[in-house]
Amino acid sequence: MNQKVARALTIAGSDSGGGAGIQADLKTFQELHVYGMSAITAITVQNTLGVHGIQEIRPDIVASQIEAVTTDIGVDAVKTGMISNIKIMEAIASLVKKYKLSNLVIDPVMISKSGHALLKEDARLALKELLIPLAMVITPNLPEAEVLVGHSLDNMAARKEAAQYLRDLGAKHVVIKGGHLSDQENADDLFYNGNEFTLLSSPRFHTQHTHGTGCTFSAAITAYLAKGEAPDIAVQRAKNYITDAIRYPLNIGQGHGPTNHWAHRLQEEQNEK
Ligand SMILES: Nc1ncnc2c1ncn2[C@@H]1O[C@H](COP(=O)(O)OP(=O)(O)OP(=O)(O)O)[C@@H](O)[C@H]1O
Ligand SMILES: Cc1ncc(CO)c(N)n1
């Protein structure tokens, strides 16, 4: 086998519970046959019941992790997740530019599903100034998109304007995720590539096991980009992946459990029996 292996890097926080953050990203990369690497920005003490502590990693250590893998192994696509402070954000932005990491997916993580702040307030502006201009794809959930534009987005016209605003900041493709629109029958995400708007649509499942859905979705986009898919295809395939991962829950933990990262294989395994 001398086919070139796709390589993806996640720059994110560690979730000891294994459902979100670095752990979700690496599991997703592996499932999609992409070699996964990590630069850890923070260690969270976390389980399905919530976030119980955070230790930020020194910015120079975050930077060295990125340098170590970029200069040796190489990176076909990269994603960012939890980046809790400005110093870490500055370090990441300068290395993305230095190493011309063009397949950059930004998941602008701000608050965990359990309500814990994962991004300091003063870092929100830095996210807009430093990182969003470098993004190939940005994937805010609805509350994050509202923070980024500075007002509520309670209808589709407002969400389309928000997507245009994020494009104007420099992100080439925008996905405003609809997971939080819990009164809607479907879980529809608004995708904008600068020319047209499309909906990434799926049924909405009534489950409490949605911890790490955003991390898993953005990691899947990153994996498909690493494999050379165009962004329009990568987001649709990632939507299929996260939909299966939510559809077939593992029922782990006492609170908001993780998604099922190997669910996409179940159909295949069923067919083999
Ligand atoms: N109950 C659900 N049923 C089906 N799809 C869902 C459901 N909840 C979320 N999704 C999908 O999961 C993906 C992630 O969206 P979501 O809005 O949950 O991200 P998030 O809030 O950033 O997640 P997290 O912060 O837990 O990582 C989107 O494609 C969304 O439509
Ligand atoms: C480490 C980490 N990153 C992201 C999220 C958002 O789901 C989380 N809960 N924990």
Please write out the topology.
Elements (H helix, E strand, L loop, with lengths): L6 E9 L5 H11 L3 E13 L2 E7 L2 H14 L4 E4 L5 H13 L5 E3 L16 H9 L5 E2 L3 H8 L6 H13 L4 E4 L12 E4 L4 E4 L12 H14 L4 H17 L18 H7 L1
Parallel strand pairs: 1-2, 1-4, 4-5, 5-6, 6-7
Antiparallel strand pairs: 2-3, 7-8, 8-9
Helix pairs in contact: 1-7, 2-3, 3-4, 5-6, 7-8
This protein binds adenosine-5'-triphosphate and 4-amino-5-hydroxymethyl-2-methylpyrimidine.
4-amino-5-hydroxymethyl-2-methylpyrimidine binds next to strand 1, strand 2 and helix 7.
Outline the structure in words.
There is one protein chain. This protein is α/β, with parallel strands linked by helices and 273 residues long. The protein is built from 9 helices and 9 strands. The protein has one domain (7-272): Ribokinase (UDP-N-acetylmuramoyl-L-alanine:D-glutamate ligase), CATH 3.40.1190.20. It has helices at 21-31, 59-72, 86-98, 123-131, 142-149, 156-168, 213-226, 231-247, 266-272, and strands spanning 7-15, 35-47, 50-56, 77-80, 104-106, 137-138, 173-176, 189-192, 197-200. The protein has a 9-stranded mixed beta sheet with strand order 3-2-1-4-5-6-7-8-9, sandwiched between helices. 50% of the residues are buried. Bound molecules: adenosine-5'-triphosphate and 4-amino-5-hydroxymethyl-2-methylpyrimidine. Residues 20, 113, 141, 177-180, 187, 189, 202, 204-205, 210-215, 217, 239, 242-243, 246 line the site of adenosine-5'-triphosphate (ATP).
SSE order, as H and E?
EHEEHEHEHEHHEEEHHH
Q: What is the total domain count?
A: 1
Total of helices: 9
The CATH superfamily appears as Ribokinase
Rg value: 17 Å
Helix content: 25-40%
Strand order of the largest sheet: 3-2-1-4-5-6-7-8-9
Strand content: 15-25%
Task: Let me know the average pLDDT.
Answer: 95
- What class, by secondary structure content? alpha/beta
What is the CATH fold-level name?
UDP-N-acetylmuramoyl-L-alanine:D-glutamate ligase
CATH architectural arrangement: 3-Layer(aba) Sandwich
- Report the biggest beta sheet as strand number plus sense, adding barrel if it closes: 9 strands, mixed
Q: Under the CATH scheme, which class?
A: Alpha Beta
Ligand list: adenosine-5'-triphosphate, 4-amino-5-hydroxymethyl-2-methylpyrimidine
The total strand number stands at 9
Q: Would you identify the regions where 5 or more consecutive residues have pLDDT less than 50?
A: none
Distance between the termini: 27 Å
